[in-house]
């Protein structure tokens, strides 16, 4: 464990990143939709293409991508600040989120020049939205047991299969899908490749999945004899497992793995200031704040690794696992505290916000890798399995 913890070298956001924070706050003051907290609590699940395009017009979608491809060419620290401010305010970022966070960097790193020129400028303009095609029905958390398959044809590839729990697929134009191009599911990591799939192609069907809250963030996507061009392949055939792990490091490394319940925590703190807090409630609030501070420091340390062009796969998994516990603990505690005082009429916005997060928080430990998968990765890094 000491060896793993030593990789979290204390890092500070540089002055230029901190000064960038004021610009982001000013932008949010001008462009953040005026909606109640229970809507803002959706934040990185909240789809608002107009907001994303306003953000893109400032150069803040594809912030770390090179200017040659339409990006701002800024560092990972400033992206950390941007994400932290957006999520703390509850900004609806889902439209551009995946393309900015992982699809764009993946294409930059593994795609060819034609793919970079075709997709990255459109991502940076807020015109191309991506979803992730990883999970499959009946596979649980075993990502390597992919059954969707692409076979070579005279003109490219023919794709068949299904993906599930695909966030916002019904709103996106493209998916980067992990599929099998050789071997069988028993081969696990071998024979996997990634493809950019245009979701408007014939043979693609998308079925939104409604959750307990009534929202439809997720979808099931079916590929039935979908014809892909030869240049749909990202990187090298058979290198999909290496590529998808690099992509997951981007997905798990940001502050979004800490701040999913931040709007609720701010709202609850305001409620306690107005109506008074018991000693136990004050202590709980202090614990949450101290945990957030610690996890934030760890997340900044992961960001420092990204800034050094390292791939902090295990470190990101650890932050994601610990962050998920905190994100789920906040609504659980606030709900318990409110129900313990039934004679005090709750603020209706606070009630709706905690109700939403209590229903959606079980998904926090599913998205981006389940707790069991993450802990298995951590155990392997420690030589425990």
Task: Describe this protein's structure.
Strand 6 (204-209) and strand 7 form a beta hairpin. The protein has helices at residues 2-6, 15-31, 37-40, 49-57, 76-89, 94-110, 113-124, 240-252, 262-275, 279-307, 313-339, 348-360, 371-381; strands at residues 130-133, 149-152, 156-163, 174-180, 192-198, 204-209, 218-229, 233-234. The protein has three domains: 2-128, Butyryl-Coa Dehydrogenase, subunit A, domain 1 (Orthogonal Bundle); 132-238, Beta Barrel (Butyryl-CoA Dehydrogenase, subunit A, domain 2); 243-381, Butyryl-CoA Dehydrogenase, subunit A, domain 3, CATH 1.20.140. With 385 residues, the chain is of the alpha+beta class.
